[in-house]
Amino acid sequence: MASQYFATVQQLTKMLKNLDTWLDKAVAHAEKKKFDPNVLLQSRLAPDMFPLMQQIQSACDGAKFCAARLAVFVLTKPADTEKTLEEIRPRIRAVIEYCSSFKESDFDGAEARVIPLGFMPGKGVRAQDFVQEMNGANTYFHLVMAYAILRHNGVELGKQDYIGSLNLVDI
Amino acid sequence: MASQYFATVQQLTKMLKNLDTWLDKAVAHAEKKKFDPNVLLQSRLAPDMFPLMQQIQSACDGAKFCAARLAVFVLTKPADTEKTLEEIRPRIRAVIEYCSSFKESDFDGAEARVIPLGFMPGKGVRAQDFVQEMNGANTYFHLVMAYAILRHNGVELGKQDYIGSLNLVDI
């Protein structure tokens, strides 16, 4: 069962790498249109939704806490202090590096764990439910919202940028 | 390993149930604002993105094909002929019913399967990669885009509508 948790962490790590390439395209778009790319970081789809910056911060946290909590490493939530692309991109890359440091064996026994919920004292979720119902659904939420904000602002992204590389086999 | 595929299908089924509740709120919003809720089905975040209707159709297909392909049931892709909420909502519910008909044992041996790709003859992906890299990432894409379009158009949805119920345990 460790393999499925390892695969989930690898997938979220890949999605952060994809996100990093979307930001390359966002910068290129801003240069072409002659506006400051940091403007995009404050863009949102509705006034009471997170802007791009917080979508990125949340996606980073999603991937990092997925790995850490399944492997029972305690991490504190970082302060979300970034204001510019120059500040947020190293955070994305640091999380990619952190998540890439896990081995399959780090998730041995994960399926039997109950993960406590900080926002609901006395309650927790089983690892399988954490991955499926909470962390996975939530991390994709922020990844897709980041993509949606960029597309809504004219950045030229396509499904291939979203999905990234595929592990194909011959049949 | 069958359990993880079963859990994935259950999760996508739950997300379609959540989507159905988002549409309840969309209808309520349209009634309050006195516009035809079917207008929302043609809303998109960018002119070269799918409108809400196609996001819903794609999310339905994502869940259905996830279950069917892992269990090696051959299904044809339905014609996307729906034009109204009255037409698309029965499709959502039919897919929920179809996906709910699977048992864990339907996925026995799934981990050893290679799933052929219709759009890339001679190539396929392993079940684990199908779930993680392709179907999962793609189905969440369309679910979150549907949510994003509704939010962008003023429908009052929150994270709880997106996540739905959680399988909590006492600790």
Describe the structure.
The structure is a homodimer. The first copy, chain A, has about 170 residues and is mainly alpha-helical. Chain A is built from 6 helices and 3 strands; from the N terminus they run ααααββααβ. In chain A, strands 1-2 form a two-stranded antiparallel ribbon. In chain A, strand 1 and strand 2 (about 125) form a beta hairpin. The two termini of chain A are about 25 Å apart. The model of chain A has no long low-confidence stretch (mean pLDDT about 95). At the A-B interface, helix 1, strand 2, helix 5, helix 6 and strand 3 of A face helix 1, strand 2, helix 4, helix 5 and strand 3 of B.
Cα gyration radius of chain A (Å):
17 Å
Q: Strand share of the residues of chain A? A: 5-15%
What is the helix content of chain A?
A: 55-70%
Secondary-structure-derived class of chain A? mainly alpha
Largest sheet of chain A: 2 strands, antiparallel
Extract low-pLDDT stretches of chain A. none
Q: In terms of quaternary structure, what is this?
A: homodimer
Number of helices of chain A: 6
Identify the most extensive interface between protein chains: A-B, 48 and 48 residues
Order of helices and strands of chain A: HHHHEEHHE
Q: Total number of β-strand segments of chain A? A: 3
Mean residue pLDDT of chain A:
95
Strand order of the largest sheet of chain A: 1-2
Distance between the termini of chain A: 26 Å
Shape field of chain A: globular
